[in-house]
Design brief:
The chain contains five helices and four strands. It is α+β, with helices and mostly antiparallel strands and 122 residues long. Strands 2-1-3-4 form a four-stranded antiparallel β-sheet.
Length: 122
């Protein structure tokens, strides 16, 4: 009986780990690329009216990603949950790049994801 209970507990633990969502292994490089892109960009992420540059913006997005990781199953969901709007105000994040108009951060990151994927297919 103890062996059966032990087996069931172990099986449930494995299922719980498998049920935990996150980007698939093959998309982890995409998420890392987007974080690096944000960090090295000359653009600022505008959150609730305040500009956040490079590493500061990445730290914020990474914290949100870590918080929502169990609800994220794709790179697109990473963008949506971690880098598009304020949880406090509900306001959309914007990205301001030198010489360009502000764009929604989700649009900016999804455009870079498309470029990255197109390059990865070559």
């Amino acid at each position: 009986m103890k062996a059966i209970i032990g087996f069931l507990v172990a099986s449930l633990a494995v299922l719980a780990l498998e049920a935990r969502a996150d980007v698939p292994k093959e998309q982890e490089a995409e998420v890392q690329h987007l974080l690096n892109y944000l960090a090295s960009s000359e653009c600022s992420m505008l959150r609730n009216g305040k500009a956040h540059e490079g590493e500061e913006a990445v730290k914020h997005v990474q914290r949100k990603y870590d918080h929502y990781r169990d609800q994220i199953a794709s790179t697109e969901e990473f963008i949506e949950r971690s880098a598009t709007r304020s949880l406090i105000s509900g306001k959309a994040y914007q990205v301001a790049c030198p010489g360009s108009e502000e764009v929604p951060s989700g649009e900016w990151l999804n455009a870079e994801l498309e470029r990255y994927r197109a390059g990865a297919d070559l």
